[in-house]
Amino acid sequence: MLTSKGVFILTFATSMLLLSILVVDITAVLASLGVIAIVILDYLLAIKANPLIIPRRDPITVKIKAGSKKTLDFLVYAKKNIALSSSPEWVKVQPDFLVKGENKIKIVLSPKIAQEKVNIKLIASYTSPLGLVDKKTGVTLPVQVTVIPRTIYAIIRALSYLTGGAAETGAGKITLYKEGFEYLGPKPYEPGDDIKRVHWKITARTLKFHIKRFVDLSGSTEIVYDVHVPGSLAADKIASALVTITLYKVREGEMINLVVVNGRKTLPVKVESPRDALLKAIGIAMKTVKIEPSELDVLIRPVASRSVRALASLAMREAEKIYLELRAMSLASKKLFVPDPSTDILLVTSLTGDPQEIIEVHSDASRVNSNLTLIVPSEPWLDSRNPEKMRRRYEKIINYLSSAGIPIIYVK
């Protein structure tokens, strides 16, 4: 592309050529042709120039979680001073200006949406030798990036907890101490622990006192999950939030009530234990993001693949039953859902419905001494067909709910 200087010279030379032909001035014609030839030569030199050289190296594959950040270091050689940019838009290069010679650069990856096998391109911008032409040229780095959904990371952490928990306690299934309590496994004895709960088998094996851990199931958290999502980005964020929150609550020893909503269809999920709630949350998340058990292999060791995939398949089957039951519901409730008394309620939602319904639930929760907190995706409009319109609507809803005093947590 010609610079303003190049455009002026070419326009002037062309005008002089036409005028010289009209007045039959051979010297002026030759001079004008010479100037035009110089502009063309400068343009050709700019096109053929390759100012950025990437030293040859073996291609590398990078796996990164959507929503996270990773930095890669590269050594490049610039034949001249150049400005540097990159693509796709979530890739940034530092510094953005290179001087002639060897340069160390950093490639910063910060993807927000899951993608497969993305190539990174560096774009060098430079000016021709005479300053008449601006040129951009792209060089593909020997890097292939796979952006893995947030949900896969969350699911694998949860599955690792489920499989590892059974191995640590030696308990393949839940054992109840008495009604309202759940056995969590052994732990080393500490002063003040109930001596009646000594785990004699492990104490004999380790020669150190261990006691049986139990959790009181009378206290509970209600996780309400809205299955309706506007796009893949929002789906990834709320599905990962569902699994992460459930895993955290299970680790804390809390009993979980799981409720699935779709519009005004409200389905309380039958949950036998915290671990059962986590398994079903995993399945629901996989359904939301459309993840197959085999896709989890991307982050797990081959030796663990079979057991993890089997557990993921079981989670999927549980989720299928939940979704079938939800679809079969013919009568919709009058409200989004009815909060239980004295309960911490976490509503995981993309805010696609009527915000007034959430405010009504918040009021109902306050009347029965319950607390409602919203878990919502940040920037869900990024993969929308009309991002600006969706952004305005989303921010309007957020402001409306915030003004009603509803706590909001954002999933990045």
Kindly describe this structure.
By secondary structure, this protein is of the alpha/beta class. It has helices spanning 4-23, 26-48, 150-169, 200-206, 232-251, 274-289, 302-328, 355-367, 387-403, and strands at 52-53, 60-65, 70-78, 82-87, 91-94, 97-98, 101-109, 115-127, 134-148, 181-188, 210-216, 220-226, 255-262, 265-269, 344-348, 371-377, 408-411. It has 3 domains: 4-48, no CATH class; 52-148, Immunoglobulins (Immunoglobulin-like, Sandwich); 220-411, Rossmann fold (3-Layer(aba) Sandwich). Helices cover 40% and strands 28% of the residues. The chain has a 6-stranded mixed sheet with strand order 14-13-12-15-16-17, with helices on both faces. β13 (255-262) and β14 (265-269) form a beta hairpin. α1 (4-23) packs antiparallel against α2 (26-48) and α6 packs across α7 (302-328). It is elongated. The protein starts with a helix and ends with a strand.
Following the backbone from N to C, one meets helices and strands in this order, namely HHEEEEEEEEEHEHEEHEEHHEHEHE
Question: Count of helices?
Answer: 9
Q: Largest sheet at a glance?
A: 6 strands, mixed
- Uncertain regions: pLDDT < 50 for 5+ in a row? 165-182
The chain-level structural class is alpha/beta
Give the number of DSSP strands: 17
Q: Give the oligomeric state of the chains in this entry, treating copies of one chain as homo and distinct chains as hetero.
A: single chain
Strand share of the residues?
25-35%
Question: According to CATH, what is the class of the largest domain?
Answer: Alpha Beta
Work out the radius of gyration: 31 Å
Q: Percentage of helical residues?
A: 25-40%
| CATH architectural grouping of the largest domain | 3-Layer(aba) Sandwich
Q: What topology, given as strand order, has the largest sheet?
A: 14-13-12-15-16-17
User: How confident overall, as mean pLDDT?
Assistant: 83
Distance between the termini: 40 Å
